[in-house]
């Protein structure tokens, strides 16, 4: 079953056969089948719905050429985005924040750390920093980008750096994966139309649930 999921023959959202059906089809004991299903759940390949059994975890493909926030991205896929706020603080910028956001030492920033979920499944841990003037005292709600847009500070372009990594215990606990599981570390540096930097976000995405796709064209 693991191979069927990894090869894409069982697609995201597809229900798994019941334990009884699997026992009959494989000739294995119920204990063995249940243990195998538990392993798939711990590895993030399947999810469970109360009263509805198990189903294949949806896989998200994200084009690298599109600048879009997490909430809007999930909405266009028909999924419900939700956030668990880990911390939300304001303060003066550190040297790295001053450099990347073009701020003076006296210009405060908002630091927002969240777990981002799709249909209650955690997909990413996100740490965002924006100038405080861009959000003011507004309630950010689920979407930081919507708040920036309302205040007239919507980014129009961004630079992203991606690298593969291994989830440490803290990341693994937040993402509900096993420590040592593959993840993607992504740093996004976003800019306004006038070229001013407006956002720096560092995220850790589940490697088993998120693919980033780039279209390449041959140079003339």
Structure description:
With 220 residues, the chain is α+β, with helices and mostly antiparallel strands. The protein folds into two domains: 1-56, Winged helix-like DNA-binding domain superfamily/Winged helix DNA-binding domain (Arc Repressor Mutant, subunit A, Orthogonal Bundle), CATH 1.10.10.10; 60-213, 3-Layer(aba) Sandwich (Chorismate lyase). The chain has eight helices and ten strands. Strands 4-5-6-9-8-7 form a six-stranded antiparallel beta sheet. Strand 1 and strand 2 (53-56) form a beta hairpin. It is elongated and about 70 Å long. The protein starts with a helix and ends in a 7-residue tail after the last strand. The relative contact order is 0.15. Pfam families: GntR (PF00392), UTRA (PF07702). Residues 1-59 form the HTH gntR-type domain. Keywords: DNA-binding, Transcription, Transcription regulation. This is GntR family transcriptional regulator.
| Count of separate DSSP helical elements | 8
Quick one: CATH class of the largest domain? Alpha Beta
CATH fold-level name of the largest domain = Chorismate lyase
State the CATH architecture of the largest domain: 3-Layer(aba) Sandwich
| Side-by-side strand order of the widest sheet | 4-5-6-9-8-7
Approximately how much beta-strand content do the residues carry?
35-45%
Which outline best applies? elongated
Write the element-wise H/E pattern from the N-terminal end onward: HHHEEEHEHEEHHEHEEE
> What is the helix content?
25-40%
Domain HTH gntR-type: 1-59
Pfam families: GntR, UTRA
Keywords: DNA-binding, Transcription, Transcription regulation
GO molecular function: DNA binding; DNA-binding transcription factor activity
């Amino acid at each position: 079953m693991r191979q069927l999921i990894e090869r894409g023959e069982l697609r995201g959202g597809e229900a798994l056969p019941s334990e009884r059906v699997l026992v009959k089809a494989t000739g294995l004991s119920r204990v063995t089948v249940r243990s195998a299903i538990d392993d798939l759940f711990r590895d993030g390949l399947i999810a469970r719905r109360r009263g509805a059994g198990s189903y294949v975890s949806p896989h998200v493909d994200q084009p690298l050429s599109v600048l879009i926030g997490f909430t809007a991205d999930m909405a266009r896929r028909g999924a419900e985005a939700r956030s668990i706020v880990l911390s939300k603080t304001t303060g003066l910028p550190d040297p790295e924040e001053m450099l990347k956001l073009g701020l003076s030492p006296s210009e405060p920033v908002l630091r927002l750390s969240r777990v981002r979920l799709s249909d209650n499944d955690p997909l990413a841990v996100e740490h965002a920093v924006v100038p405080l003037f861009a959000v003011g005292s507004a309630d950010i709600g689920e979407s930081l980008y919507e708040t920036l847009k309302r205040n007239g500070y919507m980014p129009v372009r961004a630079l992203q750096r991606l690298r593969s990594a291994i989830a440490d215990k803290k990341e693994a606990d937040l993402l509900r994966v096993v420590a040592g599981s593959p993840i993607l570390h992504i740093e996004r540096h976003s800019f306004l139309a006038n070229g001013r930097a407006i956002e720096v976000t560092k995220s850790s995405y589940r490697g088993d649930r998120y693919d980033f796709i780039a279209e390449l064209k041959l140079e003339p």
